[in-house]
Design goal:
Elements (H helix, E strand, L loop, with lengths): L1 H14 L7 H11 L5 H22 L5 H44 L6 E2 L2 E8 L10 E8 L2 E9 L3 H21 L3 H18 L3 H4 L3 E8 L6 E7 L5 E3 L5 E3 L21 E4 L5 E5 L1 H4 L11 H5 L7 H15 L8 E7 L12
Antiparallel strand pairs: 1-2, 2-11, 3-4, 4-5, 5-6, 6-9, 7-8, 7-10, 10-11
Protein name: Serine/threonine-protein phosphatase
GO molecular function, one term: phosphatase activity
Keywords: Hydrolase, Membrane, Transmembrane, Transmembrane helix
């Protein structure tokens, strides 16, 4: 763009009468370079613009009264372009630093799970929205417990450090309850108790992080392997069997965690088979609410149907690429994904103690 402006100015200077001034083209070139190019490139375009103006004036009126004004105007705009370039570079550096800090905190609070948990192959991803560098409230966890492998994906309302504090509290409650509680419903109840207690002790959470949507999943020992689920106001998981068939795992409707005062609720689990080689996908609404240019929501079930993936890692890699392309290259909301694959039918069984 800056080079095109100088080229157009030079060509027009050659073909137009001497009294036609092309100064605006030379002024615009360094200004256009400042937001997108380096300091050195902006400086080069500023110097080149000044030289072209000097050359133009040398052809028509080297000693005319307008010569110092035109040269001074282009030089002043070149200096302004250099100042603008530095200011934008500092801003970008601050944003990049804030994003790195946010990602570091996010990884510390919500670490990646190991590749294998019990009999399952596991993979997880977290992607922050591109519109800001705030730490999000999405969370996931998967643990092998005395009661089977237990998984959690949730979304705390709000962003920033307040949401991250709630994420840390909820993950702590889940990890403790998952080890000690026999029933999955008791795990959900412990998490809700913790959230309500935290909100009572910190009234500032009422308006920003007052509730959390979540899906809790438990894998039975088997065989056959079975999944038990509780969904508290969260997007439904997707079960993708090895033949390519995909379906949502729907459960009894329930309010998010933290809204017990609106309705007393007793969690009921929903059970379903987890066939050999099948994938279970848990996700936050950053996936299902991603929109394309026409405003159409991303439908993970429609996109995953009839597709086969060799591993949870491959599934999440493909899914991230697909939703990013669907939304035009940038996510508008934070996104957390957790995928688990059951062992194939011919996989060797772990020895029983």
């Amino acid at each position: 763009m800056p080079g095109a402006l100088l080229l157009v100015g030079g060509v027009l200077d050659y073909v137009t009468p001497a009294h036609v001034t092309l100064t605006p083209f030379y002024v615009a070139a360094p200004i256009a370079a400042a937001p997108v190019l380096s300091f050195g490139a902006t400086l080069a375009y500023s110097v080149l613009a000044i030289l072209l103006v000097v050359f133009e004036l040398a052809q028509i009126a080297p000693n005319g009264p307008e010569a110092p004004v035109k040269i001074g105007t282009v030089a002043l705009m070149g200096l302004f372009a250099l100042f603008l370039n530095r200011m934008l570079a500092r801003r970008d550096a601050r944003v990049a630093s804030a994003r790195r800090i946010a990602e570091t905190v996010q990884r510390a609070v919500v670490p990646e799970p190991p590749e294998r948990v019990g009999p399952l192959r596991v993979s997880a991803r977290y992607r922050a929205a591109q519109r800001n560098a705030l730490i999000g409230g999405d969370l996931y966890s998967v643990r092998e417990t005395p009661h089977g492998v237990r998984m959690l994906v949730g979304d705390v309302r709000g962003k920033g450090l307040g949401a991250t504090e709630v994420v840390a509290v909820l993950l702590g409650a889940f990890r403790e309850a998952a080890e000690s509680e026999v029933e999955l419903s008791a795990v959900a109840a412990r998490m809700e108790d913790t959230l309500i207690r935290e909100r009572r002790n910190r009234p500032d959470l009422e308006s920003n992080e007052g509730f959390t949507t979540a899906v809790l999943v438990e894998l039975s020992a088997g065989p056959p392997l079975r999944l038990r689920l509780i969904n508290r106001g969260h997007p439904p998981p997707v079960l993708l069997v090895s033949g390519g068939e995909a379906r949502y795992l729907t459960t009894e409707p329930a309010l998010p965690l933290g809204l017990r005062e609106l309705e007393e609720h007793r969690d009921l689990t929903t059970a379903t088979d987890f066939p050999p080689g099948a994938h279970l996908l848990l996700y936050t609404d950053g996936l299902s609410e991603a929109r394309d240019a026409a405003g159409v929501f991303y439908d993970p079930l429609a996109r995953l149907g009839e597709r086969r993936f060799p591993s949870p890692h491959a599934l999440l890699d493909w899914l991230l690429d697909d939703v990013t392309a669907h939304s035009g290259g940038g996510l508008k909301d934070d996104l957390a994904l957790l995928a688990a694959q059951s062992p194939s039918a011919n996989a060797p069984r772990a020895p029983t103690p």
